Amino acid sequence: MEGTIIKAYGGFYFVRVAEEIYRCAIRGKIRRQLGQALVGDRVRVQPVNAQEGVVEEILPRRTELIRPPVANVEQAVIVFAVKHPDPNLALLDRFLVQAQAAGVAPVICFNKIDLADAAELNIVNHYKPAGHPIVRVSAKTGINLDDLREILRGRITVLAGPSGVGKSSLLNALQPGLGLETGGISRKLKRGRHTTRHVELIPLAGGGLVADTPGFSSMFLPPMRREELAGYFPEFGVYEPQCRFAGCLHHREPGCAVKEAVVQGQISSLRYQHYLDLLTEVIEAERRY
Which of this chain's residues are annotated to bind GTP (predicted)? Predict the structure, then answer.
């Protein structure tokens, strides 16, 4: 039978086949040939009884994320709070690059909008030119949760972001009765406490699967050439054909249309600065390898 790994826990893999879930081991030869199976992997299972089985084959992956480690997701809903904790937009831009590099469509979700004033809600303006879907929600009050439900419907989604932004609270609000553990913000550290201990794909009543993943606060960029990075900032693409030089890095080159668009306010200066910071990181990585 063919199914999807929805949880890996205690040395076993829990595989969803239609509406049934089997607790499975993986044959040693499969593990040696293909390495570690991931949540989200499509697998072929040989049932042993009504509740247990053995994974006989791991099917080819369409996509693969490293942190969090999930396979075959179609989109990444990247959750940040607009307040408590304050959003680290440099980290958000890093996550956006990571998702796109893995072939996963990013969706930006700003949570806790019930706590924010008008100025704090304006952070969305930095991202509108990029064209990524943006949703502003409140897990506490339910504002715009129907919009998020529609985004998740019928798709395999990874829900990612730093600790304390309300990922588990959002899933509890979207799926009443789920009962995921949630945590507050450490007063001393001003950041979230980790509440999710393992990656699990959760079937949603409206259709689709969503991963609640361990919170994290850093992410390495995937290996890439310096010329590739600009492609992960979609708003640059409108202006790149007008740059004086082919392969323009939009840094120190004269006649750069992207830099001019930043000056004219057509591209967020904050996003552009994050691009330069990431470009420096990519160039340093090139030199190491």
Answer: 111-114, 161-169
